[in-house]
Specification:
Chain A: Keywords: Cell membrane, Membrane, Transmembrane, Transmembrane helix, Transport. Chain A: Belongs to the binding-protein-dependent transport system permease family. The complex is a heterodimer of chains A (313) and B (306). Chain A has 313 residues and is mainly α. Chain A folds into 2 domains: 141 residues, no CATH class; 170 residues, MetI-like fold. Chain A contains 14 helices and no strands. Classes of the chains: A mainly alpha (313), B mainly alpha (306).
């Protein structure tokens, strides 16, 4: 176990370095002078240009600049924008919004997905099972782009005008946790479908296992068989799926944040891409990739803890 | 996970071989597919959409690219007999734009799927077959690309590379660059399990060279999981294209894309929902068609789920 943890940690390092370098290279390896681009058509003052080049290491080859960048990240310094603002101040508060959104999505996903999956598995072959499978098919097919706008229209506007219920805010984050309800549900949409199917398959597999049959044969009440034997074992793949999904949800929040006007990291990224603030763009994507890789790493380790049958040698 | 798992009747295709030759995985799968309602419905829908994409003028009397058909006085008007889906912010007919918008979605979906399965499949075959350092190298490179969340990565690539040459090509490139590692992984795993089977050893003992073994013996037996993922990816790519175009980094304005239409209609969405809802509806239907295809293909090709 200990050796597995160490090996898995060591394996993550080249992936992290490779991925961050890839992002760095995509953004910075372009031909053209960034200072000239900043100045537009005007002539760049040579003294100013020299200072800036020195400051941003623009004279060094790409790999050296990447080295500087990684060194600075370790001290929490994500560099400066060309306008002189530290990138980390732009991050402030934004990651919290995206994390809140992703966590809300994760909660909705877990409750709805596992719930529907349980019903489907326990009523295998009956109409409720068929119905739930049909629902997952439709959930997978509706992109966030569509579900976002439709829910905004139905719950935010029509529900309010027709019944006066104003429980679901559909823009901004002024209403605390309630602001994240609808965006969270939208972001969770596709994942709910996958989790439902995973729960269904996983539980159906466990219900067929010998130890479940033994428990039933020795006269254990059905509810207890389900709770103590079947559920606990079929939860393992679900927990790991949910863990890995947190990174995916955070990375996929751009469209949801744009629709619901949430001032999160996705929306910041979108703006920075437009304003060509490359240092912000690289910073955001780097952090999200870090979260994604680390979430997967933790899940892998968690799996080893949760399921002692698996040997990693 | 649709029909075949719901109906509890396992021996449905066992006698499909007609006595002559034992049924192969492919003829079994084809038998399953022909009898799957999900597949037939999905295939019919997908076929219709491909026809719409290829010949939009058959379905729409107006040419959506002809701006003279737009009438600003009609901007955001509701639905009527000549403008079935109403008009958008510029007074252009939403129905004809929705019909003409199918082409981009279908092309992006199919081309990106082809590129990723060819590149990922080929590299996966090499990695799985040769193993050792080829495998280590290819798998590590794939892992690096795999770690970038796809919408973010595509946004990044399009923002930087595609800014001056935005269009279908850039979108396909951005989506493919991030999606091939998944195909590589699956192909590699399938090749590794196939490689150690007796018939491969027999072929090798008979003196077959590596190329022949790869193409004649391993590839046909390792192809099924790749086809499953490939079909499923089609819908994912189509949704991703719409998302990127919505964000403004995908397809650009004289071209028509559902994502772009949604972005255009967004500001006036609450007072005039039609120009947004109809492209959204068609987008969902298109994704649904390919998701259903993928589901049915998976059920047919993955015997473990039976």
């Amino acid at each position: 176990m200990g050796r597995y943890v160490v090996r898995r940690l060591l394996q993550a390092i080249p992936v992290l370095l490779g991925t961050t370098f890839l992002i760095f290279a995509i953004v910075y390896a372009l031909p053209g002078d960034p200072l000239q681009a900043l100045a537009g058509d005007r002539r760049v003052d040579p003294v100013f240009a020299a200072t800036m080049r020195e400051m941003f290491h623009l004279n060094d080859p790409l790999i050296v600049r990447y080295g500087y960048y990684i060194r600075d990240i370790f001290t929490g310094d994500f560099g400066m924008t060309f306008r002189g603002l530290p990138v980390s101040t732009i991050f402030e508060g934004k990651f919290q919004v995206t994390l809140n959104l992703a966590l809300m999505a994760l909660i909705i996903e877990a409750v709805v997905g596992i719930g529907l999956g349980l019903i489907a598995a326990l009523r295998r072959g009956r109409w409720s099972d068929t119905g739930i499978l049909a629902i997952t098919l439709i959930l997978v097919s509706i992109p966030t782009l569509v579900s976002g706008f439709v829910l905004q229209l139905v719950l935010g506007v029509q529900l309010k005008t027709s019944t006066g219920i104003d429980f679901f805010p559909v823009a901004g984050i002024a209403e605390g946790w309630r602001s994240y309800l609808i965006p969270g549900a939208v972001l969770a949409g596709t994942s709910i479908a996958y989790l439902t199917r995973l729960t269904r398959t996983s539980l159906m597999e466990t219900l067929r296992a010998d130890y479940v049959r033994t428990a039933i044969a020795k006269g254990m009440p059905r509810r207890r068989v389900l709770g103590r034997h079947a559920l606990r074992n079929s939860l393992i793949p679900l927990v790991t799926y949910l863990g890995a999904d947190l990174g995916t949800l955070m990375g996929g929040a751009v469209i949801t944040e744009t629709i619901f006007n949430l001032p999160g990291i996705g929306q910041q990224l979108f703006q920075s891409v437009y304003l060509r603030e490359n240092s912000v763009v690289v910073g955001i994507v780097t952090v999200l990739v870090l979260i994604y890789v680390l979430a997967n790493l933790i899940v892998d380790l968690l799996y080893a803890v949760l399921d002692p049958r698996i040997r990693y040698e | 996970m649709s029909n075949s798992t719901i109906t509890a009747s396992p021996p449905k295709h066992a006698k499909s071989g007609k006595g002559k030759k034992p049924a192969s995985l492919w003829s079994d799968a084809w038998y399953d597919l022909r009898h799957s309602k999900v597949f037939l419905f999905g295939a019919a829908l997908a076929l219709l959409l491909v026809i719409v994409a290829a010949f939009p003028s058959l379905f729409s009397p107006l040419d959506a690219f002809d701006k003279s058909t737009c009438d600003l006085a009609r901007a955001r008007d509701g639905l009527d007999a000549t403008h079935w889906f109403g008009s958008d912010n510029l007074g252009c007919d939403t129905y004809s734009r929705v019909i003409y918008g199918a082409r981009v979605s279908i092309i992006v979906g199919i081309v990106a799927t082809l590129v990723t399965s060819l590149v990922g499949g080929f590299l996966g075959l090499l990695a799985g077959f040769y193993g050792r350092w080829t495998d280590v190298l290819l798998s590590r490179v794939a892992e690096i690309f795999f770690a970038i969340p796809s919408i973010l990565g595509a946004l990044l690539i399009l923002a930087v590379v595609g800014r001056d040459n935005a269009g279908i090509g850039s979108v396909v490139l951005a989506l493919s660059v991030l999606a091939w590692p998944l195909v590589l992984r699956i192909m590699r795993a399938a090749v590794i399990t196939t490689k150690s089977q007796d018939f491969v050893l027999a072929a090798r003992a008979l003196g077959a060279g590596p190329i022949r073994i790869m193409i004649r013996h391993i590839l046909p037996n390792a192809l099924a999981p790749v086809i499953v993922v490939t079909t499923m990816n089609l819908g994912v790519f189509i949704a991703a294209e719409a998302g990127l175009s919505f964000l403004g980094v995908g397809i650009q304005s004289p071209d028509i894309s559902w994502g772009l239409m949604i972005a255009d209609a967004r500001n006036r969405f609450l007072e005039a929902p039609a120009p947004l809802l109809f492209p959204a509806l068609f987008l969902s239907i298109t994704v649904l068609a390919f998701v259903m295809l993928g589901d049915a293909v998976r059920d047919a090709l993955d015997p473990k789920l039976r």
